[in-house]
Design goal:
Elements lengths: L2 E2 L10 H8 L12 H13 L4 E5 L2 H12 L5 E5 L3 H4 L4 H6 L2 E5 L8 H7 L11 E7 L12 H13 L3 E6 L2 H8 L3 H7 L2 E5 L10 E5 L1 H13 L8 H13 L4 H16 L4 E4 L6 E6 L5 H10 L2 E2 L1 E2 L4 E5 L6 H13 L2
Parallel strand pairs: 1-11, 3-4, 3-5, 5-6, 6-7
Antiparallel strand pairs: 2-8, 7-8, 9-10, 10-13, 12-13
Helix pairs in contact: 1-11, 2-11, 3-10, 6-7, 12-14
The chain binds pyridoxal-5'-phosphate.
Amino acid sequence: MEINLVSDTVTKPTPEMLRYMFQAQVGDDVYKQDPTVIALETMVAQIFGMEAALFFPSGTMANQTAIKLHTQPGEQLIADKYAHVFNYEGGGASFNSGVSCKLLDGNRGMITAEQVAEAINDPEFYHAPLTSLVCVENTTNKGGGACYDFEEFKRIRKVCDENNLKFHMDGARIWNALVHKKENPTEYGKVFDTISVCLSKGLGAPIGSLLVSDKATINRAFRIRKILGGGMRQVGYLAAAGIYALQNNVNRLVDDHQRARELGAVLENLPWVEKVEPVETNILIFSLKKGFDEKLLIEKLKQKSIFISSLGPGKLRIVTHLDYKAVMHNYVIDTLKKLV
Ligand SMILES: Cc1ncc(COP(=O)(O)O)c(C=O)c1O
């Protein structure tokens, strides 16, 4: 039994999901003739109370499309220093959109309205790049699954309105935040210009993300997706996985959160653990006491068929997910406690 806690992207479609995918009605989505893709897009737009959505192969492409939508070459976006759009999208913001990023020193990947206001370049000062976009992530990945206080989004929105900035949310794990905070997704639709969401993380679909916005913006996004090479044909089979995931796998995220919290509690009491970051959702970040090597810990766990990842010297990450079952959880807890 292999227990992979490296990421929530490692899940495999269940037989039920595969059956649902196989019975999908499909058409050519580049001609907007795939009824299952249209059904998924309509469903996700409705969830957020927004006008339209567009299906993407990846969260990266959905985010990069959003950046392209909201900026012109030479401009600047504001994000936290941990932001996925800056750290893990291959430099796409500069490659695709020609923009630079002003990175803020936030708390666990989250930034405040005050920090945003301070980071905006004076539009009259033509030596500096024009600030045009704010990107936030919820939950934060590198920040350890942290969830924003929704009031902060409203405050950042106000700063955006006052300064003519667009506001994008990377909601790769928005489902975890919604479940954890018991929030209403339509509130998000009122605050953001665009939201990207993923089906291939906590929800267990093999692929798929969507960008949600108003109709005119999504029409523009359709063209950008084409330019980025993301137009797909009979992709309803994959969209069906997303519909299945949304119908069946959202509420159960509380189990992942519970297991991550339980692992955090175990780690906190181990003599070789220095600090466990607060666990809100399914991502758990912890650091080792001086003299303990994270590579050695990874190796020792690997020998017990448990896989976790490094976040740099002395720092590690565990991510719980759909394929991490109760029996595995007991084994991991047991193994951690016995480890010397
Ligand atoms: C916060 C966040 N945004 C975006 C992405 C990109 O998603 P994808 O791997 O589908 O491109 C990820 C992937 O893990 C992520 O964690």
